[in-house]
Amino acid sequence: MLVGRHRESAHLADLLEQARHGAARCVVVRGEPGVGKSALVEDLVSASGDVTVLRTQGVQAEAPLAFAALHRLLLPLTRLREGLPAPQERALRVAFGEEDGPSVEPFLVAVATLSLLSAAAEEQTVLCVVEDAHWLDAATSDALLFCARRLGADRVLLVFSLRDDAGSFHPGGLDELVMTGLEDNASRELLGQRVGGVLAPGVADRLVQETGGNPLALLELPPALTASQLEGAAPLPEQLPLSSRVEAAFLDRSRALPTPTQTALLVVAADDTGDLTTVRRAVRALGVAEEAVEEAVASGLLVADAQTLRVRHPLVRSAVYQAATGTQRRAVHLALADALTVAGDADRATWHRASAAEGPDLKLVAALQDVGARAARRGAYASALAAYERAAALTTDSAQQAALTFAAARNAWASGQAEHARTLALAARQSAVDPVLLADIARLLGRVEVNLGSAVDAHRIFVETARTVSAFDQPKALEMAVAAAIMRTYGADSGARLADCDVDAEPVEGNDPRTLVLKQLFVAMTLAAEHDWAGATSALDVGLEAGDEVVDLDVLGNLGNAALQLGADAAQQHFYALTLSRARDTGAVLTVVYALHRLCFGYLVAGDWPAVRSSAQEALNLAETVGQRQLRTPALAWLTLLAARQAGDDFDTLLTEVDEATATYPLGILGDPVHDLVRWAKGARAADAGDASGALHHLSRLRVPALTRMAAVDRTDAAVRAGAIDTARRWVDELAPFADATGRPWALGAVAYGRAMTTQTASETDSPPDMGADGLANDPDTLFREALAQYATAGRPFDEARTHLAYGEWLRRAQRRVDAREHLRRATETFADLRAVPLTERANAELRASGETARKRDPSTLVDLTPMELKVAQLVSTGLSNKDVAAQIWVSPRTVAFHLRNVFAKAGISSRGELAQLDLG
User: Among 671, 680, 675, which residue's Cα sits nearest to residue 710?
Assistant: First the structure.
């Protein structure tokens, strides 16, 4: 039993017991160096019994080596890999350097890790111990944090231990067990065990006070004191920072050893493999007998078992390594590099040579380039970044330095370090002269601006880059031109324009599908920005026909964007869904998040509001899981709009969250859509509360053209109810050319609705109706019926129900109560299906005023599910197996089964087939 750690030991034992019963748990054991984190974890492992124990440790020198710590952790589970989906199995092989091939997404490695842990937990409870997590390589850290946040009904306990200054390891949201110093009585007990002989009470008191009860200090400082000091006859040394004193104690012990033994200690301190054979080989290369290794182990500063060798505590490593001279460290690193080369570990060997480098070294630069390229293929972008940065620092060739710095920037971008990517790209631009490289740098800077900075600046960069590269790289010019054209449709327009000769957008025989689609996208979005809706629609239709043959996720996503801008609801949903499906298959997690955001547009107008909620919630959770918190903001905005529509109790909370997020994180091109969604939500909330002026205020501030058109019914309704008839008419007139040119039924319906609403007052006179330019009588009756005829095929049930409601209200006021009831019933039913509470109540009130009592909805058909339960129920209802669902949403099959059981219990059903009969809203 550990001295003074009963509470902490009991807590970990309880977590392990919960894991045994199918409730995965994760805990971060945090504390200062020497506080006893490793001892506590070792105590847990010793008492764990019949569990599968997986262990790994972060090593500071190993940080540039991608997936090194993860490989050690999962090595005992190698036999289970064959049961993983093929893409996941391959991802692990590539990540661990067992297979060389096309690059893999790092997120797919994380998903494969989750699947492997889940598979192991099916056999037996799994205890994963990850010590010194603050020194994990970034790729391992990301994968394990993903698992920690996605493990559900799995028999897994994941324990991280780390220092208070966690460095690059950010376990936000995970449960923590904070370890502090031992209480005074426990400290004295430990001191007594360590000293054994005479220890003056005053000396014990001072040691307890100065160490703060730190167990390592209590164990290591007494041996550094003389007998006179322990007895209180001689003064104690002056007080030093605790970690410095413990390091000094370790250093004093190492300096008391023979010089060859000190050399062996330094080799182990610089080594990151823990491999005894490698250490012995390096020691021999330094002219030291292998016996020195055994002497270092005997000193108690090293710990050896079988073929592994490690320092007793990280402070031993830092004490020994920092005390060595530069010459000594370089010699040790070169010896380790040679030893690792013999062992076939080229990447580690290269990093040791880099640590020994004193100046420019072209051969080492080439080796680091190879390391960076291999890391990038394995999806270890942070490791690739480190390799390219180090290579750039070791060359004096300015052109090569620019290329290497840009390679580092590209990998910084891929690893989610956007600001660092910008800094590196700007540095590369200063010394770059190659026009191709300069174009690539500009393109990356444009992408950074799109996501973090000024979308208008990004538009200018894309246009100028397209113009520059058009002379020597038409495909790249076309890509930049498409990006700029799409940005214009979002309102990000710098005024820069491309000449006809800058981009070859004419389709020719032999164009591959991707090129053909890009050309049509450029034409369509350029025409859309000029409000040539007919030409834009025609060009887009050609691109949509070829879209299914495209595999490029960016191009597929842009097809969805273009369809959104031109109101092609079905095409928009198809290509966003295709993007999502393929991104899930490849583990392109950020693309998954973006696709989930964008699918919400179509789900909202199609009346699939449960899908809006589940997609937004999944995007929210994934963004949090992968540490891209700025990508939570659009999801929060969608949930806020949905809460406004459904009078959700969480509206104010969500509004506060999204306001805080927009104030905290740069949104780039997402800024205007997010702000518009929030304005739309506020407008809907105000309208439902009877505040027509407030609704008009918010809805008149929408900026994104596609969202303005999407909210047309809300905007018209708010303006009319606020008495701003001229504003309403102007908005309808602005929408009409789009509707006429594209022929979208929803747009034609919105125009007819708007005209009906703005002619109601005139219709109440005895004057005969005027005829509009479209041949329709300008009276509400005709216009409402025209709107409903268009909405009948539009696939926008909410807007259709709004039209039924407005028409029913007008009919009731015109004393046509029987006619009104049919439309009010239709409106009530749709609003109830959507759980649009305020409008359901309004339609019910109108129905009662018409002389009919609304039928109450059967509450038994409503099932109140959590977002994850809803997502699982929706996927299972399509016929997918638990394993297929797990692969779709990146959880374990056991977690899917857990949520499915909850769905069955809440819905009172007993079979998967009954899910299709539920109202999953």
Answer: 680
What phi-psi label fits residue 492: left (phi over 0), alpha (psi between -120 and 50 degrees) or beta?
beta
- 3-state SS of 546-573 is HHCCCCCHHHHHHHHHHHHHCCCHHHHH
- pLDDT tens, position by position, 741-762: 999 999 999 999 999 999 975 4
Cβ distance 524 to 562 under 8 Å?
yes
Strands of the sheet containing 25-30, edge to edge, are 52-57, 126-131, 156-162, 25-30, 175-178
Q: Do the beta carbons of residue 35 and residue 183 sit within 8 Å?
A: no
Element (H, E) at 480: helix 474-489
Specify the pLDDT at position 765: 41
Per the document, the length of the chain is 921
Cα distance between residue 770 and residue 284, in whole Å: 102
Helix (H) / strand (E) containing 753: helix 745-758
What is the distance, to the nearest Å, from the Cα of residue 19 to the centroid of all Cα atoms in its chain? 26
What values do phi and psi take at 244, rounded to 5? -65, -40
For residue 327, the tally of other CB atoms under 10 A from its CB is 8
Distance CA 906, CA 900 (A): 10
The CA-atom distances, in angstroms, between 410 and each of 298, 386, 397, 405, 417 are 48, 12, 20, 9, 10
- What ranges in 242-394 are assigned the alpha helix state H? 242-255, 259-270, 276-285, 291-298, 314-323, 326-342, 346-356, 362-377, 381-393
Q: Is the pLDDT score of 770 beyond 80? A: no
Confirm if 65 and 348 have CB atoms less than 8 A apart.
Answer: yes
CA distances from 592 to 568, 607, 631, 676, 869 (A): 21, 22, 11, 22, 19
Phi, psi (rounded to 5 degrees) for 5: -120, 30
- The DSSP secondary-structure symbol of 83 reads G
pLDDT above 90: residue 246: no
pLDDT band at 416 (very low <50, low <70, confident <90, very high): confident
SS3 for 26?
A: strand
